Amino acid sequence: MNVMMKTYRRKLDIRNGLVDLSHGAGGRAMGQLIEDIFHKAFDNEWLRAGNDQSAFVVPGGRMVMTTDGYVVSPLFFPGGNIGSLAVHGTINDIAMAGAKPLYLSASFIIEEGFPLADLNRIAETMGDASREAGVPVITGDTKVVERGKADGVFISTAGVGMVPDGLDLRSDAARPGDTVIISGSIGDHGVAVMSKRENLEFDTAIISDTAALHRLVASMVAVGGQHIRLMRDPTRGGIAATLNEIAHQSRLGFRIDEDAIPMKPEVAAACEFLGLDPLNVANEGKLVAVVAPEAAEAILAAMRADPLGREAAIIGAAVADEQCFVQMLTSFGGGRIVDWLSGEQLPRIC
Amino acid sequence: MKYIDEYRDGRLARDIARQIAAEARPGLTYHFMEFCGGHTHAISRYGLEDMLPGNVQMIHGPGCPVCVLPIGRIDAAIALALRPEITLCTYGDLMRVPGSNGSSLLKAKAAGADIRMVYSTLDALRIAEAEPHREVVFFAIGFETTTPPTALALKAAIARDLKNFSIFCNHVVTPAAIQTILESPDVRKLGTVKIDGFIGPAHVSTVIGTEPYEFFAEEFQKPVVVAGFEPLDVIQAILMLVRQVNDGRHEVENQYIRAVTQFGNEKAQAEVATYFELRDSFEWRGLGEVPYGALRLRPQYIRFDAETRFAMVTPAAKDNPACECGAILRGVKKPADCKLFGTLCTPDTPMGSCMVSSEGACAAHWTYGRFREKTRRMDAGRAVA
Prior knowledge:
The structure holds two protein chains of two kinds. Chain A has nine helices and 13 strands. Chain A has helices at about 30-40, 45-50, 80-95, 115-135, 190-195, 215-225, 240-250, 265-275, 295-305; strands at about 60-70, 75, 80, 100-110, 135-145, 155-165, 180, 230, 255, 290, 315-320, 325-330, 335. In chain A, strand 4, helix 4 and strand 5 (about 135-145) form a beta-alpha-beta unit. Chain B is α/β, with parallel strands linked by helices. Chain B contains 16 helices and 13 strands. Chain B has a five-stranded parallel sheet, sandwiched between helices. In chain B, strands 4-3-5-6 form a four-stranded parallel sheet, sandwiched between helices. Chain B is globular, with a radius of gyration of 21 Å. The interface of A and B includes residues 323, 334, 335, 346 and 348 of A.
């Protein structure tokens, strides 16, 4: 008689344990780590099937695919952690094509000695973010590297989505006269992360704006998809980098109004004492849309009806400009250029 | 932000701008030098030039500590940092300043030098305490505003008996530089630079007061208005200067009464005087040798002086011959007069120091104001990441 002997497995000590090299070696320890942390957090039919890949059926049409790496420091910050950031960031890259995100992958590169409790917390946040967004993580990978060869944990993702029929957003599609809309206040993510940086710690009530924008995008597409020229999420480099990229790709300029740009007073104050320009500071739950002027009000109204677009505002317009300048009328009354950031974001010295 | 927004009120600014336009006499041209890079930055960032009448012109001065540091001092710091026992602590702005032959502290760091970016002298002290086997050198730079913190760091190092901490001293002083500008042939004899008055830096005067300016306001008959760094401060100072010129006055006026007094912060001055003394002369980029233009450690604290301790040499190093930083720092030329501006030299690939610091005249004009240059192509088109 064939008796299945169930082998005894010591429980993973999530509370006090550390990741060691065996967790990436392909043996039982790795299986246990994946099972007890990742599968539990992301639980879905694809992961339960236990294959090295996941199969899914898609309807015909245009698909988009994106990939993204996450190396944020510190890993935990007010309003989220690297896990929620990875889910939201990947979904947003898909959503900026006007697409409906369908599936994600996640690959973890973990440093030896990383606390299992932190890894579990990151995985759980990630699972929550993916369930909340309705976009499952259906395949993944785990690697462990020696101490000092990574910084805690790095996450690399991919995502796929479907573009609604007839929608074709392109980075060179902006035209002079188009309206520029931002979905809400700028700089929240960058300031939240910086407030927890070593040597820079300061108390602030600001939390990261990290959020998945695909539902906001869907409501915009529903009221005026054919009038949306393009969308971008202004992450690293802030709205300054985003507008400059669009200006160069569409070969035109932008004129924006400083007074119209939504910003929390706490963010403005933190940027002031850190010597940063909020236009250069990263966002993780905001989008910039360039839309046909005749549809701007309708799209803006649709945005404001969504919780993630409540503070949406028209901040300026595209203009013909051979030099592709992004210019801003300052609250003070004079004009200035809004440029790409040069080098790192460094506070002033005196 | 409550206390800051008040100084950026656009409505008030437009009122003052109207007053300047009304009071500036049509037949006269007014040339005012804002000495400090902080003012240059504010003028560019808020677009103040757009609000002034055509006959009121601002000349950017040399008050940017990163900009006036001669290349040789950067070369000396790089050579020091490359020594295996040294940990060089520096403010971030200095990392990208070009030294000779395309070198920089940033590149030295990539090549293995132990260079750490710090936000204050206290960070450097902490590193020295935490890593007693390293020789920790603080790259001290700045005007009167940043000297007292360096003095306090020395005081703390002495109190804690830190044997592995020293300072590469590049502290410079403001009044001597203004005097050098006023005595330069450009201003006095050749008349290539016309200066009708100065805006003095408020943060410097919170330390030294307004009194040090009284000598040359009298001697050179130039009005000085000490002003804060918010745009309303600057535009108000311009109005005060216009009025002085119109009245034929040459006084030291204090716009920044919320923090500046006649004699400044005497406690801070005393701390500085304890540890530092004037150098007979110090090279400023653009101005050349400035008599009594910088500070060094007093002989009794020489063990904290990195230049002596590590027998540092400051090599004679020449600027790129096409770079106009020197003339720009003297107010003789404007950034766009330089052939390199916006072509080879941009904040991403700076050739001269004025393009590095955000307070440099070239960086400020490039970053905020280059749309005013109609004649040249200034879009710096680049690949998008």
